[in-house]
Specification:
This protein folds into two domains: 133 residues, no CATH class; 35 residues. The protein has eight helices and no strands. Helix 1 packs across helix 5.
């Protein structure tokens, strides 16, 4: 059984590596189109390079914002799709993805656990962002103020009916 799980984990890690390599190639091609050399990104972060060429800094900031926008769109769509597919059992999908992500990171950085801290922190942050504070959880609460007031009014009516029934039952109990 141990050998089966180790092979399964290895294949999972290889599959995710291929997926991440594909995303990285697409991203580097996009950066090349923007005129940013993706092979040497650390050059763009040095203060001397920014002082010598401020347009490079602007391009770098634009690329970072573009990456953040693509990542948020992808994660938002992906988790909204999962929420639509799993409905009330979305938490199972969240836990499964969280577990698989942690297995991937721990398997990938098996010999060097210090390098696994930052990816694990990122995975934990995504896990908590996809919880009840996430965008797709709030999407269904876009009802108007009138609808909310009608809902509260119906809840008050139901509470009044229940309260009157309880009072009637107490009156009957005291009469007997």
């Amino acid at each position: 059984i141990s050998q089966f799980f180790s092979r399964l984990t290895e294949r999972f890690v290889n599959g995710v590596d291929i997926l991440m390599d594909t995303f990285w190639r697409i991203w580097t091609d996009l950066l090349d189109v923007l005129g940013i050399d993706a092979s040497n990104l650390t050059h763009y972060f040095s203060p001397a390079a920014i002082a010598n060429n401020p347009t490079r800094a602007l391009l770098l900031i634009g690329a970072i914002l573009l990456a953040y926008w693509f990542l948020s769109l992808f994660l938002g769509f992906f988790f909204y799709l999962l929420h639509m597919l799993f409905g009330r059992f979305f938490w199972i999908a969240r836990v499964a993805l969280f577990t698989l992500s942690c297995v991937y990171i721990l398997q990938k950085y098996e010999g060097d656990p210090e390098h696994a801290v930052l990816p694990l922190c990122f995975v934990v942050a995504v896990y908590f962002m996809t919880g009840p504070v996430g965008f797709y959880w709030r999407r269904n609460n876009n009802s108007s103020l009138e609808e909310k007031m009608d809902h509260l009014d119906s809840q008050i009516r139901l509470l009044n009916i229940r309260l009157s029934r309880v009072i009637e039952n107490m009156d009957r109990g005291s009469d007997q």
